[in-house]
Amino acid sequence: MIDFKIFPFFNTLPSREIEKLKKLCRFKKYTSGTIIMREKEALNELIFVVEGQLTVTKTHREHKNTLFSLDPGDTYGEVEILNGTPALATLIGYQEFQVMYMPKDVFLRFIGLYPGFAKESRDIYTRRAFQLLEEGLSKTQSGKVITFFNVKGGAGKSVIAANAAVMLARYWKKKVVLLDMNLAFGDQGILLGLPQDKHIHKLVDERPPLKLSHIENQLTTHSSGLKVLLSPPLPELAETIKPLLVEQIVEILRANYDFVIIDTHNQLSDLELKILEISDMIMLMMTMELTFIKNTKLLLDLLQRLKIPRDKVKVVLNRAFKSMGLEPAKVEKSLRYAISHFIPSEGNIVVPSVNKGAPFVLSKSSENTDILMAMKKLCATLTGEEFEKGTWNMFSLLKEVFGLN
Ligand SMILES: Nc1ncnc2c1ncn2[C@@H]1O[C@H](COP(=O)(O)OP(=O)(O)O)[C@@H](O)[C@H]1O
Ligand SMILES: [Mg+2]
Predict the structure, then answer these.
(1) Cα-flanking dihedrals φ and ψ of residue 50, to 5°?
(2) CATH level 3 topology of 144-401
(3) Quick check: helix, strand or coil at residue 92?
(4) Nearest ligand 1 atom to alpha carbon 318
(5) Is residue 78 within 8 Å of residue 128, measured between CB atoms?
(6) Residue 1's pLDDT band (boundaries 50, 70, 90)?
(7) What residues does the ion ligand 2 have nearby, CB within 5 Å?
(8) In this predicted structure, which of 13-22, 233-242, 339-348 has the lowest mean pLDDT?
(9) Which ligand is nearest the CA of 181, by number?
(10) For the residues 40-56, what does the mean pLDDT come to?
(11) How far is the CA of 167 from the centre of ligand 2 (A)?
(12) d(CA 383, ligand 2 centre) in Å
């Protein structure tokens, strides 16, 4: 039987309703690649992802866009049911996956009866309606803010943020800016081999209102085309950078760039809370160690209490290898979150690249390696591009190599 606790929705219902639900809902397992819902089809049930991962795609001006992905614990269909429209998107699953369907009338009855349930539904509706309804797509979209985060050091936040940012700039030709928000001990200058004469501290005394030109004067350009806002040159200057300034910088940059990538420090202060709040996606980086799993679980619970939308958070397992001593499936269960990305451990590629100040995604030594494929897949999901077959095959291959199935 599935664990209903993975759905934040069900915490808002009394247990007798949950017991009844098991009889009212239907469950179905699918094989990889199955389309369970097509755009314009009637949608009479709310969809709950129990196992596996699904992507939500929508055709706009004959172009297929991936809007977001659904992990175990995520739901789909609120916008259609509440708006009374047929399906606004196509849902396709990857790997083996399992879905639970809740009849529309049960969903609507719960909304009427339970204010907590109604609020969860309304929150998801508000976030998704903009993306799903046609008007949302035709408006000029602002850039995506992607934050790499964890409260523990050594997860690879800085290395992976730098390489993802470089990759999006160089291979996807996106307009990308990377912010080093490890204000006291930022590593991005070293990781990217950049001169460190321009940095965020020079914006502190800028006369308000802060303008794009002021910020751009302090950006350093990497050879890939990536722009970087470096941290102050001295640790003691970190405290002069207030969350409000960072928020203004992010808002201005997101209106002018395709991606704002944020590297963070290993802590959860007002600055990190502000950054998490304004991010479109949080890449929660971890490695397969019990200490990391414990902290990541505490963080995921905290993010839920802070009302940070569940589908904004993606768990990324870095430094993965075959015999980690812990089974990813069990970790997913304990976190009540799917691991969205696996990045293999490749010390012989990553360490020299850190020491040379040259991102590994651009180096010859990473050609045709698993770590490069994993980075491509990660970037492909960030761009919302449809997954290439190869990438997904590689993903399952990676899983196979690591014995993760
Ligand atoms: N996939 C990987 N394979 C091997 N080593 C890695 C990998 N990712 C990160 N590392 C190593 O881990 C170290 C810590 O990474 P870093 O990005 O500084 O972590 P954080 O910013 O989360 O504290 C790096 O110096 C790098 O050498
Ligand atoms: Mg770091």
Answers:
(1) -100, -45
(2) Rossmann fold (3.40.50)
(3) strand
(4) 1
(5) yes
(6) low
(7) 157-158
(8) 13-22
(9) 2
(10) 91
(11) 18
(12) 23
Q: Is 48 exposed, middle or buried (0-12, 13-18, 19+ CB in 10 A)?
A: buried
Smallest CA separation from ligand 1 atom 10, residue: 156
| pLDDT tens digits, one per residue of 292-347 | 999 999 999 999 888 888 888 999 999 987 777 778 888 888 888 888 899 999 99
Q: Tell which residue, 176, 201, 175, has the closest CA to residue 186.
A: 201
Domain ranges of the chain: 4-138, 144-401
List 192's β-bridge partners, or say none.
none
Closest C-alpha to ligand 1, atom 14: 154
Give DSSP secondary structure letters for 126-155: HHHHHHHSHHHHHSPPPPEEEEEE-SSTTS
Which residue bears the tokens 């700039």?
169
Q: How far is the CA of 158 from the centre of ligand 2 (A)?
A: 4
What sections of 38-149 are H helices per DSSP? 78-83, 104-113, 115-132, 134-138
Domain 4-138 fold: Jelly Rolls (2.60.120)
Tracing tokens 């470096």 back to the chain, one arrives at 230
Binding pocket residue ranges, ligand 1, CB within 6 Å: 153-159, 187, 285, 318-319, 343, 345-347, 350-351, 354, 371
**Ligand with minimal distance to 361 CA:** 1
Coil, helix or strand for 220?
Answer: strand
Distance 55 CA to ligand 1 centre (A): 29
